[in-house]
Structure formats: structure tokens, C-alpha cells
Amino acid sequence: MRLPPLLLALLLALPARAGADCTAVAALEAVARAVEAGRPAALAPLLRRHDAESLLWALRDHPLGAEAGAVRGLFAAAGAMAAGRPVAAEAGSGAARLARLAEGAGCAEARARGAATGGEAGGAARRREDRAGWHPVRLAAAGVAALALTAAAAGAVWLQARLRRRRRRLSRRHPVRLPALMRAGGREAPAMVLDLSRLGAKLRLAPDVPGEPATAVEIEIGEARLAATIRWRNAHYAGVSFDRPLAEDALAPLLAATRAA
User: Fold this and answer.
1) What contacts 193, CB < 8 A, 6 or more positions away?
2) pLDDT tens digit string along 35-78?
3) Which end of the chain is more exposed for a tag (fewer CB within 10 A), N or C?
């Protein structure tokens, strides 16, 4: 039977997570014992390698993860003790309680390793085991994200290519010679359409015909009346874009009329 890759990665990660939990338990017990015994010199190296939030993260699936308030209180007391500040009397009893809970957590091997090295090897082992445990999951997530990004990029490229093809099809120019009328500013003037596409047209105009760039006009070509906007203008010519693309069945008769003429 073949397992899905993500499920296989999760199964591979489980043993390493258990090791990471035990390493965190050992570090927590070492801090609690040092606070209980009132040994600030032993706390300094432990606090450089561990903090309450990282241990709670490692213990989130462990029963000790439910002791979040006590763990934060322990590290607050440990920081004060290591800095030489006074510590409340109940800090020792709270530390002793956490030490007993950690001792009974069933992680004797990791606890012995952490005690023998002062927590340094335990912290390094925890980091190595945590990376080893979660690396396959992160790798699988990265693979899924990469596939999603690749698919999105491919879709965007396809869409852009399709839009470019449609734009080219709509903007294909046809040389014509069609009489027209242009209405602008309450005036009407004759014009000659020199080229035509579904998106716009080039017109020849008399010099006194009103209209500047951005002027809204109406172009009448045969029976078609098209709302348009002047995009450029000089003494004799103007380029307009239609407010709505010219329908294919409206363009065909105009081209046929040009061919017949």
C-alpha cells in the first residue's frame, strides 16, 4: 500500500517530535531545579539557550504544555534570580512542583543528558531534533506552495497571451474610404474614415472642425452611430477610439461597402 507523501512525512516526523518534547522537558527541569536550589550561576547559561515561549512551543502537544502560566512564572523568577534581584518565596515551591512534573514525564534519558551537560547539549539536541522532525513537513508544504505558485504563474501567462491575442484581433486595422459625419460640441461636420478597426478609426477632417484630444464625439458611418473619444488630433486628421468595440457583424458591411466602392 502506498501512503500519500504528506501523510508519510507526518509519520516520519512523529518520533523526532517525541525526542524534541523530552529535550524540552529536560531543559524545563534543569531551570526548575536551579530556581528551587537558588543557584543563579547555573541559571545564566540555561537562560541564554532557553526561554519560556520556545519551551512552550516544543511542549504544545505534551501534558506539560498545559502549565503555560507556571512555566512563564518560572522563567520570570529565573531571570530575576540570575540578575540578582529578589524573588518571591513561592517561586521556589512553584519551581519544585514543575521539577517533579518534569521528572515524572518519562524522559529519563534526555533528562540525564541535559543534566550532564548543563543544558547545552540538550538545547542543541532539541534544535537538531526539532529541525529533523519538522523538515519533511516544511518541505512538503514548500513543495505544495511552489506548485501553487507555478500554476498561478502559468495561468497568468496564459491569460495575458489570450488577452493579447484578443486585443490584436480587435485592433486589426482595415484600410477603408468611407464618408462619415462627426458630431462634437453641438456641431456636425463631414469626415472621411481612412482606416477602421473594431476599437477605433482614423478620420480626415476639415481644419475648422471642432474637437481636441479627450473630446467625446459621435461618429456616423452609414447606419452605424458610434460613441467615441478623440485620442489625437492635428490639422487634418484625428484618431478616435470607440467607447464600445464595434461588433463583428457591424464591421463586415462597412468593409463590404469599401470593397464595392
Assistant:
1) 176, 177, 178, 179, 180, 201, 202, 203, 219, 221
2) 988 888 888 889 888 898 988 888 888 888 888 889 998 999 88
3) N
Residue 147 has pLDDT above 60, yes or no: yes
Which domains, from first to last, does the chain contain?
A: 5-141 (no CATH), 174-260 (2.40.10.220)
pLDDT digits (tens, 9 = 90+) for 192-217: 999 999 899 999 998 888 788 889 99
